[in-house]
Amino acid sequence: MGDIVKFSAVNSKVKALIGKMLSQDQYIKLLNCKDFISTVKVLKEETSYSEFLESYNLEKIHRGNLENILHMHYISTYSKFIKYFNGEYRNLMKVLFLRWEIEDLKVIIRGKYLGRSLDEIENRLIARCSLNTINYDYLLAFKNVEDVIYGLKKSIYYKNLKNLAKDASEKGLFRIETELDFLYFTSIKKELKHLSTENKEAVQSIIGMEVDLLNLGWIYRGKTFYKIRPEELFNYTIYNGYKLPKEKIRKLCYVNDMVDFHNLIEKTPYAYIYEKDDSVIIEKHEREYQKKYFKKIIRENETNISVLMSYFMIYRIEIKDIISIIEQKRYSIDLKEGIKYISLTL
């Protein structure tokens, strides 16, 4: 009974937050804005983002600031939901938070590889909060990728990264980032044994779908852009997905060309995402697929963790869409072209 009451309260809060998300008309108005300032003005004055943009001077906000503000509000919102949980569910929420800490760790590692300044790296970080398992200042003080990884010796990340520390190359960074994703999903799997059957199945389906999409993205990019050998592609895939069993993943890694890749994808639920061999369209279709999937879960309103997880997945997509729209203003992209880069189809 405790879990039912707890999740009912969470679901009610989520429904209220879902009602504040961008409508189709608001998306279109943002896309039709002529420049960055007018776009931020619409966000500040005509959407729910006014709640935390109110204290900011529009004239002093630039693109990087806005991206950071959006992400920090996301993390703040996530942190507030922790109070609804205790025991194994609080632990699960903390493990799920690793997704954003890992994104920050990627920013630090990539920043050191590219020789970015301390300010440049810090301005890209989004997840500094009480939930952190790493010391940001300690890692930021290091000069290169190898030192940052060795600086993680007392963290959960070191075991997975230590053998990759010396490969300071673009392909090496790709491997590091993939290994961090693998660690995230492995950590979640360890927490599942502590949950009720209903919540275990809910987490497995949501996270499993994310695993499927990451595996497909890794294989597609690995073959298209990095020309990575099939056996290495397969070694870096993540097991225990939702709709793509291990043998299907293996076949995708070992296809001879992208024609065979697309033929195999056609026989999966993700055929829509990869119907065109165009990375822009693939990203758009992936966001649309996820939104449809998670909105269905929210409508079903089961009294388990699935509604909250789905909300944060959709919220993350909305932030990506806003950032994409903001980026478009630099290139004077019109509505017809701009719609290709967000999770909206007219």
Describe, in plain words, how this protein is organized in 3D.
With 346 residues, the protein is mostly helical. Helix content is 66%, strand content 0%. It has 18 helices and no strands. It has helices at 2-18, 24-32, 36-46, 50-53, 63-81, 87-114, 118-122, 136-140, 145-150, 158-161, 170-192, 197-224, 230-235, 246-253, 258-265, 279-300, 306-328, 335-338. It is globular. The mean pLDDT is 94.
Kindly summarize this structure in a few lines.
By secondary structure, the protein is mainly alpha-helical.
Entry keywords:
346 residues; mainly alpha; 18 helices; globular
Number of strands: 0
Shape: globular
Sheet-strand content, in percent, reads under 5%
Distance between the termini: 44 Å
- Give the % helix: 55-70%
Task: Return residue spans where pLDDT drops below 50 for at least 5 consecutive residues.
Answer: none
Averaging pLDDT over every residue, what do you get? 94
Q: Give the helices and strands as they follow along the chain.
A: HHHHHHHHHHHHHHHHHH
- Rg of Cα set: 20 Å
Provide a count of the helices: 18
Query: Could you give a short account of the major beta sheet?
Result: none
Coarse structural class = mainly alpha
